[in-house]
Known about the structure:
The protein has about 475 residues and is an alpha/beta fold. It has 16 helices and 11 strands.
Amino acid sequence: MKTLNKLSKYNFSRYFKLFFVVWDIILLNIAIVLSSLARYHSLNELFSTQVQTISLLTNLIWIILLLYNNSFKIIRVEPIESILKRTIKKFIIHSSLITIFVVFLNYTEISRVCLLYFYSFFFTLLMISRYLSIKVLKYIRAKGYNFKSFIVVGANDTDERIRKMLAKDLTYGYRFLGFFDEKVDPFAFISGPVVGDFDDLEGFILRRKVDEMYIALHIDNISVINKLIQICEHNMVRIKFIPDFQLYTKSNKVEISFYENTPVLMFRREPLELTVNRIIKQVFDFCFSLAVILLIFPWLFPILMMIIKIESPGPVFFRQERSGRDNQSFTCLKFRSMCVNSLSDCKQAGKGDSRITKFGSFIRKTSIDELPQFFNVLFGDMSVVGPRPHMVNHTKQYSELINNYLVRQYAKPGITGWAQVNGFRGETKEIIDMENRVEYDIWYIENWSLLLDIRIVIKTVINMFKGEENAY
C-alpha cells in the first residue's frame, strides 16, 4: 500500500497516450510471433519480404487507428463495456484493411490461416489487456488512491445529477467535497452537503485540495461565473461547465459541433448523417434485400400468389402511399392480406378485423406480408431496418398530437425496426402506444450502428418463427 501511495502522487496521465500506443504495439507483435509459431512451428516465415511488409502495415495502421479521434482516451466514468466496444470497432477496421491489402497486393506468401491465427491472438490479448488495466485502475481507486476531489457550484437538480454520477461509484476515482450556492432550490432534492455560498469558495479552495469545480449556474449569473473562473485559474483548479440542455430538449444525447470557433448545439446526434455510415447502411440494405429477392422470392412468390388469388378476388400486391424519409411519400408494397375494401387507406387493422382473410391472418402474424418491401429497399425508398412507415393521413394526424413525431422521418422507413422488436407493433389504440413507438424510433436514429441493424434483423427473424401477440 505504501507503493501505491507513492505512485498516486505522480501524474502518469500525461504519459498515458505514449504508454497506451507502445503497449498495444507490443501485444500486436507478440500476436504476430504466436501466429507464426502456431502455423509453422518456427519463426523463419517472418523474414520473408511479403510477411515483413504486412507486419509493418499492421503496426502502422493500428497506430493510426489509436491516434485517430482520441481512441486512447479513457474517461473515468466510462464503463468497461464502452471501452471494449470502441476497441472492437478499431479491430474490425484494422482486420478489414489488412485483408484488403493482402488481396489487392496478391501476396501469395501470406497464409490466410496464419492471418486468422494472428487476429485471434491479437483480439484475445487486446481484450484481456483492456479488461485487466481498467480493473487494476478501479481497484487502486477503490482503495482510496488516484482520486480527484471536486466541488459543485449550484444546488439544484442538474448539480445533484452530476454529483450522483461522479460519486456513486468509488472506482470512478472522484471524491465529493460539497455544494456552493447563494440560495438552495427548495424544490430540488439535494443529498450532499451545502458547505457555503459563492463568497466562501476561495477560502475553501485555499484550505482544501480541490482538483475540479463543476458549475451548473444559469447564464444570468455571468458575473459570478467570470469571478469563479478567475479563482479557479489562480488556484490551479480545473473548471467544468454543465449546461442544462434539458431546458431545450428531452434528448439525453445532444451533440456539440464547432463552426470555426463557435460552438453549435444540436438536439440529437444522428450517426446516419455521416456519409460513411450512410454508405455502410446502403450497402447492407442492397446486399441483404437482393439476397432475399434472389433466394426466397423465386420459390415462395408463386405459392403465395396462388393462395392469395384462390382465397379472395383482387390483386396479389397491396399498394399504399406511406410517409418516408423527410416526410416524402412513396408507394409501399405488401402481399394483400385483406379482402379488397374502401377503408384500407384510412383505417388500421384491428384484432378480429373482418377484412382480414384466413391466409392473410397467417402472413400478417409471421410478417410474410412485408416481404415485397424488399423491392422498396432495392429501389431506395426504404431500408431493411428503420422506423416503420405509416399511412400518410396517420402521419398528419399524429404529427399534430405528438410534438416530436416527425423526428422519426429523419431516417428511411424500415421493414422492421427497434420499436417493432421491442413489442410496439400493430394497432395503436391509444396515443401512448404511438408515443412509445416514436420514443423507440428516435432512440434508433440517435444510436444507429451496423451491429444494431444486424441485431434487430436477428430478433425479427426469431419473432417471425415465434409469432407475435400484436401482429394481426
